[in-house]
Design goal:
The complex is a heterodimer of chains A (about 400) and B (about 675). By secondary structure, chain A is mostly helical. Chain A has one domain. In chain A, strands 1-2-3 form a 3-stranded antiparallel sheet. In chain A, a hairpin with a 2-residue loop joins strand 2 and strand 3. The longest helix of chain A has about 35 residues. The radius of gyration of chain A is 21 Å and the shape is globular. Chain B is α+β, with helices and mostly antiparallel strands. Helix content of chain B is about 35%, strand content about 20%. In chain B, the strands form 7 sheets. In chain B, strands 2, 3, 4, 5, 10, 18 and 19 form a 7-stranded mixed sheet that branches. In chain B, strands 12-11-23-22-21 form a 5-stranded antiparallel sheet, with helices on both faces. Chain B has a 3-stranded antiparallel sheet with strand order 1-8-9. In chain B, helix 4 crosses helix 5, helix 11 runs antiparallel to helix 23 and helix 14 packs antiparallel against helix 22. The longest helix of chain B has 28 residues. The radius of gyration of chain B is 34 Å and the shape is elongated. Chain B starts with a helix and ends in a 31-residue tail after the last helix. The relative contact order of chain B is 0.12. The chains are: A mainly alpha (about 400), B alpha+beta (about 675). At the A-B interface, helix 8, helix 11, helix 13 and helix 14 of A face helix 1 and helix 2 of B.
């Protein structure tokens, strides 16, 4: 904690002692904005490279630009709003989320790759599980800051039970959709919020152990359908089935490995251009970047993601309001897990799950969710002097 | 306030995660021991080898005997078929394939191609692991079939034009020409490629398996084109990287035979075999089976093969793309071994046709002067065991006929056995004087006991037995006895010769000592007609035979044909040998539990020899009965008394011809 109130009041000149200041552009973390824009731009170019094909198909990059515009607009709106309002709107948010998650299980939803997790609107698909992450973050942050916390920040057992309830509700519905990959994101969000909410470390450790054991049991019981189990386990033995997940991982390694230091050149990566890598614009966009832009390009992407995460953590730290800190913590966990999981699976460090690389991978729901999350963080940055909740 | 340690914990997790990712990225991209660029290169490029058109085989007049023609073939592409039933498990995919195969089989069966769903599945399984090249499942299909397959759009099935080997004369000269077969596996293709660098083979290619097709494989095949193409993930060719090796068409092989004369000689052989079949054997003898045999005609002046017949023959066209199973079984179990080229691989006792060898040894060694009279009593009792008088000591003439006094000339013309029995015994008993192997050494002078050198596969050395061979074959306790020498002296016993060896021996006799390696191939030319290899007479030995021995031997052979007492007199009755004198020797080889093999070896014209002919008709009776008339008829062609008819082209092209025109308005109810 290097910054003091005095320093900030000097720089902003608007400390009104606990009352919400009017939002100001000056409060925006512009470095965070620029880093995110850089990631989205790199993503756009490589999505184009990965999908243009011999016929110069621009539909993917065009759609992604639309998603970015929509997401950016929503993020700006969210940032403008005092994040305290989120707590007030939480009830509506949870109900809307639950309705969406239930509706997607009905014939209104569409099944893709074994997951009943999409709504189809014309040429676009919407994945409620993505937006559910935001609901979960807000809900958990709200629960742990419901009663004005003391400075020691330790929440009560009752609070924890409430958190467990909301987590189980949302995560359970997502599990029913078959989106097992997302569940781990939810778990990470939960852990980060617990950590920042002051939950005793031994509880957190116990929770992690319980989670690990239950996942192992789930895998060994065979309750998961073959397709997902294959994908989860294939990274242990990539050559078991050359046509499926192991094939993807091997092609991903080929792409990354052949990129070298400087890359094969944009639009010139043979693995990408000859479509050896399935899902290359979504799950394996990192491999595309690594092949065409080399270590320099891929490391730049990782550095930008790291920069984004550290800015979020910094904003969480600087917020005067625990609710704001917990919101940032949740977003931090959500993005960190996704970056680590996605880049990790691209480099055969982890199992293949359908987790996109935040801001970079093609996909509307994911991009818009990530951008709104940045909007939430910016809201916390702008309104960071708000001390108490309403 | 939230404690700083909790933020620090989150920051720590992030630092560890990014450090790990960064390290892994550095390891993969900068430090990796795996050359990923090479891995990707291999995965995206493929060499496509396309056969060049195979060279032709022509007869001496330029008539095409083996041609490469385009045929409409139905192909199966394993790469495309792999996509069938995608998304299903392996059983589902197999079921989806079976459906496609069912439709394809229905079309092909209607076309007259015997095929089943199982066959197609097996072909697919084989092709799936072999190459990108679609595999042929039916050739010479009609245009209607093409249209039907295109219309149905059966995945993986296509109709294309391919090079197909065609033998327009069918069974004629089949043993000389041979045929191509299909390279059946990748392993076979690799083995072939290893033998002929630059002529890459792959499964499905044509390779010569018999005859000149096999011996001149490296000339005929040509150099295939190797095109390096770039493929995308769906195995679609996206572009050509380079032509790594341009196609060079195969070279033409020009034979020494004339197809019309060849056909005439084959006809003679077939007809004389049939005549032998119909001719009754003696009551106690084995019946004349008369199905197999061979006639070889050599040019004494050049060593060229003028004609070479082997009965029975087979149609090489049926072997180009494999063969229906029932026919294969027929050929495999056929007692007449149609694939066997009896001219070079058939092993026969020489019988009396061998006597000139013993005669030559006799005169040149001084064992018996040509003029010395030998009293032929019809039976010969070995001097060395006369006291014992056992059955192993008695050798007799055919029919035990006593010929009375004979000299060298009449011993040949009348074919006295005892004359030679006694020589055989003398040579062995007095081996200190004559050497242990004087007969064998003399036989080698005439080319027996070694492959003839003709450019055909399975050119046998025959068998020229001696003590060493006996012991190697039957054990060290074996010994060479007088009886062995006696048998050898008249070309019986363990001696085996091939018809081409016999013809070549008489050619050597005719030329006075010049022995050639017979040539069935005259030259090799490029597709543009440039001669790249010529088989100018290949002389194997050029030793002048001693005239004092040669003279009476030649006279004996002439008398055999041209004197009334001669064994071939009847066969050559009314032959105009005043204009075209012929020298020849009959042979009747005895084979256990089978009718006699009829042999005749000759050359003519006797004074300025041009051709040497040898004929062997299995299980057909005396030499003068079957083989000599056959050779007489051959000489009628050689002497120009008879003009060979044009060899007939084979009528059945094995399916609808590739050039079938579409016929509209013709309906079959």
């Amino acid at each position: 904690m290097t910054a003091t109130t005095g320093q900030w009041s000097r720089s902003l000149g608007r400390n009104e002692g606990g009352r919400s200041p009017r939002p100001s552009l000056l409060g925006v973390d512009w470095s965070l904005v620029l880093a995110v824009m850089a990631l989205v731009a790199i993503g756009g170019i490589t999505i184009y490279s990965a999908t243009r094909g011999p016929l110069d198909d621009r539909s993917f990059v065009t759609k992604q630009a639309i998603f970015a515009a929509v997401g950016g607009g929503l993020a700006a709106a969210v940032a403008w709003i005092d994040f305290g309002k989120f707590r007030e709107w939480l009830g509506i948010g949870v109900v809307a989320t639950v309705v969406a998650l239930v509706a997607v299980l009905t014939p209104l939803g569409t099944e893709i790759n074994g997951s009943q997790a999409w709504f189809r609107f014309g040429g676009f698909t919407v994945q409620p599980a993505e937006f559910t992450k935001l609901t979960l973050i807000v809900a958990l942050a709200a629960v742990f800051t419901n009663r004005r916390s003391d400075d020691d920040g330790v929440a009560s057992l009752r609070t924890h039970l409430a958190a467990a309830g909301i987590f189980t509700l949302l995560a359970g519905l997502v599990f029913l959709e078959g989106e097992t990959g997302s569940l781990l994101v939810y778990g990470c969000i939960l852990l980060a919020v617990l950590l920042l909410a002051g939950t005793p470390v031994r509880w957190i450790v116990a929770l992690v152990l319980a989670g690990v054991i239950s996942v192992s049991l789930l895998l060994s019981s065979g309750a998961l359908e073959g397709y997902r189990e294959d994908r989860l386990l294939s990274f242990l033995n990539p050559d078991a089935d050359p046509q499926s997940a192991g094939y993807q991982v091997r092609q991903s390694l080929n792409a990354i490995g052949s990129g070298g230091l400087g890359g094969q050149g944009l639009f010139d990566g043979p693995v990408t251009q000859l479509r050896f890598l399935p899902e290359q614009q979504t799950d394996f966009i990192f491999a595309v970047i690594a092949e065409e832009l080399g270590f320099i390009g891929a490391a730049t992407v990782l550095a930008l993601e790291a920069f984004v995460l550290f800015r979020i953590l910094r904003i969480a730290q600087l917020a005067r309001n625990p609710f704001g800190s917990l919101l940032c913590g949740g977003v931090f966990a959500m993005l960190l897990y996704q970056v680590a999981q996605n880049a990790g699976m691209n480099m055969s460090l982890g199992p293949v799950t359908g987790i996109p690389l935040p801001f970079v991978s093609y996909g509307g729901s994911s991009l818009i969710t990530s951008l709104i999350a940045i909007g939430i963080v910016q809201s916390v940055a702008i309104h960071r002097y708000r001390v108490g909740g309403p | 306030m939230i404690s700083g340690a909790r933020f620090a914990a989150l920051a720590f997790v992030a630092v560890v995660a990014f450090a790990g990712l960064g390290a892994r990225l550095w390891f993969l991209q900068v430090m990796s021991p795996v050359d990923f660029v090479e891995v990707v290169e291999q995965q995206r490029t493929r060499s496509i080898v396309t056969e060049a058109p195979r060279g032709r085989i022509l007869d001496v007049n330029g008539t095409v005997l083996a041609d490469t023609r385009e045929s409409l073939v139905v192909t199966l592409d394993a790469v495309q078929l792999r996509e069938v039933g995608q998304g299903l498990d392996s059983e589902g995919r197999a079921a989806a394939r079976a459906e496609v195969f069912g439709e394809a089989a229905a079309i092909l069966v209607a076309e007259g191609v015997k095929t089943k769903v199982d066959d197609l599945e097996r072909t697919y399984q084989r092709a799936a692991v072999q190459s990108l090249k679609p595999v042929v499942v039916a050739e010479d299909v009609a245009i209607d079939t093409w249209i039907e397959i295109e219309e149905r759009g059966l995945p993986g099935f296509d109709v294309e034009r391919r090079w197909v080997r065609d033998y327009p004369y069918g069974e004629i000269a089949a043993h000389i020409i041979g045929h191509v077969g299909e390279v059946r596996s990748s392993a076979e293709a690799e083995a072939l490629t290893a033998r002929a660098p630059g002529r890459q083979y792959q499964a499905g290619d044509a390779v010569g398996v018999r005859g000149v097709e096999a011996t001149f494989e490296s000339r005929l095949r040509g150099q295939p084109e190797i095109r390096v193409v770039e493929l995308d993930a769906f195995a679609q060719v996206v572009g050509t990287r380079e032509i790594a090796q341009p196609a060079v068409p195969g070279e033409d092989v020009i034979l020494t035979i004339d197809i019309d004369l060849q056909n005439a000689v084959e006809q003679v052989l077939a007809e004389e075999l049939e005549a032998a079949r119909l001719r009754p054997a003696c009551l106690t003898c084995e019946p004349h089976r008369g199905r197999n045999g061979s006639i070889v005609v050599l040019d004494v002046r050049t060593g060229e093969v003028v004609a070479m017949a082997s009965a029975p023959s087979y149609d090489p066209n049926e072997w180009v793309f494999g063969i229906p199973a029932d026919q294969l079984d027929y050929l495999r179990t056929n007692l007449d071994s149609p694939f066997l080229n009896r001219a070079v691989s058939g092993l026969y006792p020489a019988g009396s046709t061998f006597k000139p060898v013993t005669a030559y040894a006799s005169v040149t060694s001084g064992a018996r002067a040509p003029t010395t009279i030998w009293e032929d009593e019809g039976v010969y009792q070995l001097e060395s065991c006369r006291e014992e008088g056992g059955p192993g000591c008695r050798f007799q003439n055919a029919g035990a006929a006593a010929l009375g006094p004979v000299d060298l000339v009449s011993s040949l013309s009348r074919s006295s056995d005892t004359y030679y029995y006694s020589l055989g015994e003398t040579f062995w008993v007095e081996r200190d004087t004559y050497g242990e192997t004087i007969i064998q050494d003399t036989a080698e002078l005439f080319g027996f006991g070694a492959p003839s050198g003709v450019q055909l596969p399975a050119d046998s050395a025959g068998r020229l037995p001696d003590l060493e061979w006996l012991q190697a074959t039957y054990g060290d306790d074996q010994g060479w006895f007088t009886g062995d020498n006696v048998n050898l002296s008249i070309g019986q016993g363990e001696l085996l010769v091939t018809p081409i060896q016999l013809a070549n021996a008489y050619s050597t006799l005719a030329s006075g000592g010049r022995r050639y390696e017979p040539s069935v191939v005259a030259e090799v030319r490029t597709a543009d007609g440039e001669v790249v290899q010529a088989f100018t007479p290949r002389i194997a030995a050029d030793e002048r035979l001693q005239p004092d021995a040669l003279g009476p031997i030649r006279q004996g052979l002439i008398d055999a044909v041209q004197t009334e007492a001669g064994t071939a007199w009847k066969a050559f009755a009314e032959f105009p040998w005043n204009n075209y004198p012929i020298a020849g020797k009959t042979g009747t080889a005895q084979v256990t539990r089978r009718a006699d093999f009829s042999l005749f070896a000759a050359y003519g014209p006797a004074l300025v020899p041009e051709y040497a002919v040898a004929a062997v008709l299995e299980e057909s009776g005396f030499g003068g009965e079957a083989a000599a008339p056959a050779v007489r008829r051959v000489f009628e062609y050689l002497a120009g008394l008879n003009e060979p008819a044009p060899a007939p082209l084979r009528t059945d092209t094995g399916g609808a011809p590739a050039s079938t025109e579409l016929e509209f308005g013709v309906f079959e109810p």
